Queue: 3 jobs
Job 1
Amino acid sequence: MTTSHCIVTLTANPSIDRTLTLGSPLQRGAVHRLESVSSQAGGKGVNISRACVAAGVDTVAVLPAAGDDPFVHELMAGEISHRLVHSDGLVRVNLTVTEPDGTTTKLNSPGPQVGPIALAGLAATLHELAVRADWVVLAGSLPPGAPLAWYAELVTDLRRHTRVAVDTSDAPLRALVERLDVAAPHVMKPNGEELASFADGDGRLLEADPQAAADAARTLVERGVETVLATLGAHGAVLVNADGGWHAAPPRTEVVSTVGAGDSSLFGYLLGELRGHEPAERLALAVAYGSAAAGLPGTTIPRPDQVDPRGVQVRELRRPIHHQQKIDR
């Protein structure tokens, strides 16, 4: 049953996600026979909108595409409500090679050029929809032609009207972090590598050390971000806000494909927030969604009946000493 809540998503650089499943480990230069090939209209924002549809949460997926693009026909088949801003060129194709142990290798294409008119149209559409949205999610890479600080510009406008979550990486992420004084979103969802990129750390070490990851995430909270949800792969996730930090260890999961797991985690957090859950419960739901996605093939987004937060273990993390001193004062 549809709720009165609404999550608007932006997929600035949508993709057809094609997953190639191998029956043996990938060997560079070898000839492989595929066990299966699957294809789905994707991109981070679209994945979150797909999760919304499955959970009965109203959603609108905003993206640049031509109305007759096969990508759009698949959105319609999936009953995903969407708003298009016309852009020339077909939606890109991203390839994911999945090995039997769950290891995934991604080959992402850049996507078609998006000009100033299309970018202005996307910004105007988001501005219009933000008035009735509980959340606007800006997710994924930026297309060729978009300024690196475009997400920061959008956050500055949108946060005056609704709550904003951002999940991006590389140069757009760095540009957003540089402008947190005027463009801090309510939620940021980096993974370990992304967290390390602006915290002068090692991504693999951060993923393996939840306390270190939480300490790095707290630097964003101290600069104005309300909540940081940092996904740590097989080590679960940490959640940090002004009141504290928590780590969630995932349930035992047979990993099939990690593609879409981070998007599912962000949706799980937002769903918990819409339901009025406490932060630790939101984190448990986020990790449960991410773990369920990792156990499914390709870019499959889990249904609510495939998600069980009872198997997630959450513990509170200590605050850094310098933070405790700030509170004591």
Job 2
Amino acid sequence: MLTRLEQIFEQAKNQRRAAFIAYVMAGDPDLETTHAVLSCLSAARADLIELGIPYGDPLADGPTIVAAAQRSLKNGTSLADVFRVLERHRKSGGAPVVLFSYFNPIYQYGIERFTRTARVAGAVGVIVPDLALDESLELRASARSTDLQMPLLVAPTTSSERAARIAEAATGFVYVVSRLGVTGANATPNVTQVRRQVAMLRGVTKKPLAVGFGVSSAASVREVTTFADGVMVGSALISAYAGTRGDEAVRHLRTFVEPLVAATAWEGVTVS
């Protein structure tokens, strides 16, 4: 039986396209705008949304997401606020959400308490970029007990042996990092490298493979969809509505994201 996240990728495949995954920082610029942005992405047919939990030392993130986290923290956004906006989104019938968090906020909140509260609020999964495979046993066990999926990251430098272990432990999908360094729209994916990485992973897992880091345009989305099951856009999406709020943020975001969603279609297919 397919998990909820696997169902998302299977549905996209049946529609002859890759899954589109959008990243949003909770509380940037405020929680009302976050809810409006989540609704906008759902209406634009994003398959899955990564809802970022703001953190003061986001090691894997580039300047755009770091700045968004800082704005959110300056507003006083708490983990409880993130759960509330997630619950509100779930009740509105929006696209499924995975939480994106560094481990420290989860640890401080309490691992079991976090996974239980996240699931009740409506999350279908959690991604923790700074938690190594061998250090993730407790969180993975707690996530499994509450029916939360936990995709894991494979970096460009990950050996094929370790990548196989990560893919086996991942649930929902495998997050394929497209290049070395941090997130950011100004550094494009190393397509040749990530294509090889995806091909290697195809040999060790049947789980969906989604590519992130540096994907920022319809052209880069289209290129990634030729070999991956899903594509993630974060920094460029945040930049699209940075400095705006409410309805204005939604207008900017809609204009930016609709061509990206359309670009997920396989060659010769139109996303309707």
Job 3
Amino acid sequence: MFTTAYAKAPNPEKPGQKAPGMGNILPMMIVMFVIIYFFMIRPQSKRQKETKLMLENIKKGDKVITSGGILGLVTAIKGNIVTLKISSNAEVDFKKGAISSVVTQEVEKELKGEKTTK
């Protein structure tokens, strides 16, 4: 009723012969790394440098937006702590890393609802 099935033995390789397709893998991996570098790693490191430079250049009197969306005026900087005036009688301390951007004139007009012309 049942018959015995035998698998065909693989062809014996000649000495010094490479496995098929191994020569194509290395160049493909190099190309993939280059693509990942230019589309992911390089832009991220550039963004980190810009953020670090922005945080180092914050000074008293700058208007900033925190990562939580709070808009405030820098009143004091003590090391890694920035004091923001968020209303006429309220000041809050934040770490410098919590500041996401410095408000420019274009952003200020956008916050007030004015149209910007370019």
